[in-house]
Design a protein that fits this description.
The chain is built from eight helices and six strands. With 218 residues, it is an alpha+beta fold. The protein folds into two domains: 92 residues, Glutathione S-transferase Yfyf (Class Pi), Chain A, domain 2 (Up-down Bundle), CATH 1.20.1050; 86 residues, Alpha-Beta Plaits (2-Layer Sandwich). The strands form two sheets. Strands 4-5-3-6 form a four-stranded antiparallel beta sheet, with helices on one face. The protein has a two-stranded parallel ribbon with strand order 1-2.
């Protein structure tokens, strides 16, 4: 039978009509949920169909309510209005809420905001990873008469936030000349290797040149 209402969709007469219609049907049109189910269920007052008076409407209403907003949008059929069924929504019925549109969107937004807030708090508590590098420098003197102990003391006198000197050793170069090979650990955001080599080369009485022998991120 054709489903037709008159006036307020939530009136006892219209709810009785809908209940009889759904007595032997699962959906408003055909054998699958459609846009007709969405528009009618969305106009019903949850309070008025939650009791035992309209059992078929209540069963159908709970079923349609179980779908998400995205799933309802994907239902087949042309989007109809209550007027297409000869019905209308109560103008001042506070219970007549759109349970399938704005309320679900508001709830989804609330859940999303809560998850984003929790993620932001978790990220804020997580300690930031400090990027560091392990550098081995070759510091070459002018000749074999250079005081290598004084040279190393001069190099180690260079201090900066985010920089730590490590072990060192003298390595033979040629003709009795030895170079200072020294390890330095630096925080990448605080200490530039170019700046460090320039600072070492300022000790012109001792240092001929500085080379980066090895560079490794740690």
């Amino acid at each position: 039978m054709a489903l037709k209402f008159s006036g307020d969709i939530n009136s006892p007469a219209n709810l009785t009509t809908l209940d009889k219609f759904l007595a032997n049907k699962s959906y408003i049109e055909g054998y699958t949920p459609s846009q007709s189910d969405v528009v009618l269920a969305g106009a019903l007052s949850a309070n008025k169909v939650s009791g035992d008076q309209y059992v078929n409407v209540a069963r159908w209403f709970r079923h349609i309510s179980s779908y998400s907003a995205a799933e309802k949008k994907a239902f087949p059929g042309v989007k109809k209005t209550l007027a297409d069924f000869g019905a209308e929504a109560a103008a001042d019925d506070d219970d007549d809420l759109d349970l399938f549109g704005e309320e679900e969107d508001a709830e989804a937004n609330k859940v999303r905001e809560e998850r984003l807030k929790a993620y932001a708090e978790k990220k804020a508590k997580k300690p930031a990873v400090i990027a560091k590098s392990n550098v081995i420098l070759d510091v070459k003197p002018w000749d074999d008469e250079t005081d290598m102990k004084a040279l190393e003391e001069a190099v180690r006198s260079i201090q900066a936030d985010g920089m730590v000197w490590g072990i060192s050793k003298l390595q033979p170069v040629a003709f009795g000349v030895k170079k200072l090979q020294i390890v330095c650990v630096v925080e990448d955001d605080k200490v530039s290797i170019d700046w460090l080599t320039e600072e070492i080369e300022k000790f012109e009485d001792f240092v001929q040149s500085v080379d980066v022998a090895a560079f490794q991120k740690i």
